[in-house]
Amino acid sequence: MFQKILIANRGEIACRIIATARRMGLATVAVYSEADAHARHVALADESVAIGGPAPRDSYLRGDAIIAAAQATGAQAIHPGYGFLSENPDFVDAVEAAGLTFIGPSAKAIRAMGLKDAAKRLMSGAGVPVVPGYHGADQQADHLAAEAARIGWPVLIKAVAGGGGKGMRKVTRAEDFAAALDSAKGEAATAFGNDAVLIEKYVEKPRHIEVQVFGDGSDAVHLFERDCSLQRRHQKVIEEAPAPGMPAEMRAAMGEAAVRAARAIGYKGAGTIEFIVDASDGLRADRFWFMEMNTRLQVEHPVTEAITGVDLVEWQIRVAAGEALPLRQDQLAIHGHAFEARLYAEDVPAGFLPATGTLAHLAFPEGARADTGVRTGDTISPWYDPMIAKVIVHGPTREVALQQLSRALAETQVAGTVTNLGFLGALARHPGFAAGDVDTGLIERDLDALVSDPAPSAGVRAAALLASAGLTARPALGFTLWAPLARRLAVRQGHEVTEGLLTLDAEGPRITVEGECLVPPALPVVQAGGLIHVFDKGACHSFAPVDPLAREASGGAAGNATLSPMPGLVKAVFVAPGQAVAAGDRLAILEAMKMEHTLTAARDGVVAEVLVTPGTQVEAGAALILLEAETAEVAA
């Protein structure tokens, strides 16, 4: 067994690995970028080493610096977590060449599954069912269009080196294929440095069900399935294990197929075989097909741990140290049901745009597992994935576990940045999801209802007003003649000001808001960052106290600026000063989270100034392009 391991990652997964390593008695080494110098994973590790600048290419993707850090600190093995270098076979080769152990599969196994087209040919040869499609090397547009027509509409264009929905487009008719192909190839080239694509039959009511496998290089077992069908834009939102409505014969068939896949490449460590399932006629053993294999630990691995009682990170470390599989297949069983919800800093009403900000407050309820890499006071950086935490619950049945999830989300408290917490809570209460009738299109079908941003109730506003007076508990009554103590208060939320009258008598404080006299409810209230944060059913309502002596300054933006909707990298600029543009014309392309976003002109006008160049890193709200001020027309 190792004495010390280095974690080549950051955030919640680094903290997760450190927790298991410490329980096993192993010393840990963290690596960090300049942006992460004070991060939680750095504080938890026994040692830490700085490896470069905030951009991943300058730090967490620098395999040479990571290996040097392991050698300098005496670490014997490197755990890659997920993302970054976790599925880079060249990094595995370099780790082993340095005399260190890579806690994960061999470079050969990673290469075998690294390209989706080659992986599907390999799996077909191993007897694993694959989706009808074209996975060939001919990437000519005419040839791909012909193959799509042969497969039959609708089809799905997918980047062969893809993941996370990038480089993926659905096409329903022949006349749309060329534009979709160009778009998919462009995004794939940006995200992966490889614009090759494959074409697959699009499944009409798809469910995304994956099987956790684990191998020791000679044998393999499966740890049952996870249902990851609740997705938006091919990004997983809530995962669960086991899959709802899964027949025993189909579970056995999928498990056996997954184990065959792992054995076919001599797999070692934790891996996931992802299947697409046609649920249009229920779950059937002849309606699942191999999509891809993730040759690493998955983000959603905690739900498998919850239902099996297995610590997958411990298994990874033990097998990497030379031990055999800790359990046989007949020793593994499903116990209860588990859910995981991914809590992100993102602006849901604005289209789920990644957000940044300093966490003025962060708290999770008792009874739920929260895997997180941040704490109160930490900053959500524009450099990395904006995940705040994974909230995991486990119960004896799916119904009980779902109730636990709904309550855990309602009691989670986040202030200082916008989040998807309310969206997750709405999903947990969705009747179709509660019934187990899930597929990958559920969120898009009901998106408007799921993303509605609840306005603060009168009770929430009363709680904010009370907090603005500095009264969060029963106050001293003071003294007045003939009438109770009274005080006027005001708080602001955005442009809206709420005014109220606080009165104090023998029964305690009351707030009169818009003519209604209320006893302020006992809602959680936190004052941080100069704001009052009131938490209600998973939503965080933030108010600014209003000074009655203050006077609002006039002025503001003239409405002529195109602003960056999120932190990102300017990939292209299409206009120059003096150029006339029409409403809807492309002005620039912004890349955020490896996806491209086109910024367009909001009105007709003339470009006055271009404030950025391609390659510029910008913050949310930064002005990118200015139009000349509109002039009023003079009537004849």
TrEMBL record:
Its cofactor is biotin. Pfam families: Biotin_carb_C (PF02785), Biotin_carb_N (PF00289), Biotin_lipoyl (PF00364), CPSase_L_D2 (PF02786). The keyword RNA-binding does not apply. GO terms for molecular function: ATP binding; ligase activity; metal ion binding. Residues 552-628 form the Lipoyl-binding domain. Residues 1-448 form the Biotin carboxylation domain. Residues 120-321 form the ATP-grasp domain. InterPro entries: ATP-grasp (IPR011761), BC-like_N (IPR005481), Biotin_BS (IPR001882), Biotin_carboxylase_complex (IPR050856), Biotin_carboxylation_dom (IPR011764), Biotin_COase_C (IPR005482), Biotin_lipoyl (IPR000089), CPAse_ATP-bd (IPR005479). SUPFAM superfamilies: Glutathione synthetase ATP-binding domain-like, PreATP-grasp domain, Rudiment single hybrid motif, Single hybrid motif. Keywords: ATP-binding, Biotin, Ligase, Nucleotide-binding, Transit peptide. This is 3-methylcrotonoyl-CoA carboxylase alpha subunit.
